[in-house]
Amino acid sequence: MPELPEVEVVRRGLDDHVRGRTIASAVIRHPRAARRHVAGTEDLAARMLGATITGTARRGKYCWLILDDRDALLMHLGMSGQMLITSPDVPIAPHERARFSFTDGGHDLRFDDQRTFGHLMYDEGGEVLPSPIAHIARDPFDPQFDQAAVVARIKAKRTGIKRALLDQTLVSGIGNIYADEALWTAKVHGETAASSLSKSRISAVVDAARSVMAAALAQGGTSFDSLYVDVAGSSGYYFSRSLNVYGLAGHPCTRCGTPIAREKFMNRSSHFCPGCQRKR
């Protein structure tokens, strides 16, 4: 699933291509694309007509288009969602779920989603923060991110530090990839109880997460397959160049040479170095 760097890449691309443009037509082609919009696909499309996109925003793994300086079209990419800028002449794609055209006659905005886990939702008055994600915490790139307060909340948890990093109500934007990478950077095992770590150690983990995600963002995010792309359809390059543990089971740790281990974690996997990240 796209994490903070990948969603931020998409948000920046959208901001470059659709800010200031007015929507001339909206077609929602699949009901799952609007399943969180209670009024349904036709209502969602109707609300978009005539709206001017006055900005874009993001919190954690969610981003949204700001409409008429007031409302929001909230977007979550799920496992395979793609927001694409495409020529109006491009025919309907097999996994196209929605398309928006503009009054200037330029390129369309298209939402493709092969696995249909992503969704679009209109939120009236949601310019600053859409109500469906009001519970989502700020992320480490947010200017108002209070690291000391976040560290204190994490330390209060008896759960493993990795679970705490993935809790989007504590700190948002960090997913499985960057949690593993941050923990490797900080030399902390993911099953270490958050409450057993000092505040300075937890803060170092948060710093590592910010640093790793900043590096990924600079390279367009992490692409493991063709499902994550930016608005132009291009893949990110962070995976092939810079990951240290995630997806590298059996490879030698670049720091100590110990083979990277992989263990089951919830419904996914954790990758870590048994040499550098000892269980406590």
- By CATH's scheme, which homologous superfamily of the largest domain applies? MutM-like, N-terminal
Distance between the termini: 29 Å
Count helical runs: 7
Q: Stretches where pLDDT falls below 50 for ≥5 residues?
A: none
Which terms summarize this structure?
N-terminal domain of MutM-like DNA repair proteins, elongated, 26% helix, 4-stranded antiparallel sheet, 21% strand, Helicase, Ruva Protein, domain 3, alpha+beta, single chain, 2 domains, 280 residues
Compact overview of the structure:
26% of the residues lie in helices and 21% in strands. With 280 residues, the protein is an alpha+beta fold. The protein starts with a helix and ends in an 8-residue tail after the last strand.
Task: Please tell me about this protein's structure.
The protein is of the alpha+beta class. It folds into two domains: 4-133, N-terminal domain of MutM-like DNA repair proteins; 147-272, Helicase, Ruva Protein, domain 3, CATH 1.10.8.50. Helices cover 26% and strands 21% of the residues. It contains seven helices and ten strands. It has a four-stranded antiparallel sheet. Strands 2-3-4-8 form a four-stranded antiparallel sheet, covered by helices on one side. It has a two-stranded antiparallel sheet with strand order 9-10. It is elongated. The chain starts with a helix and ends in an 8-residue tail after the last strand.
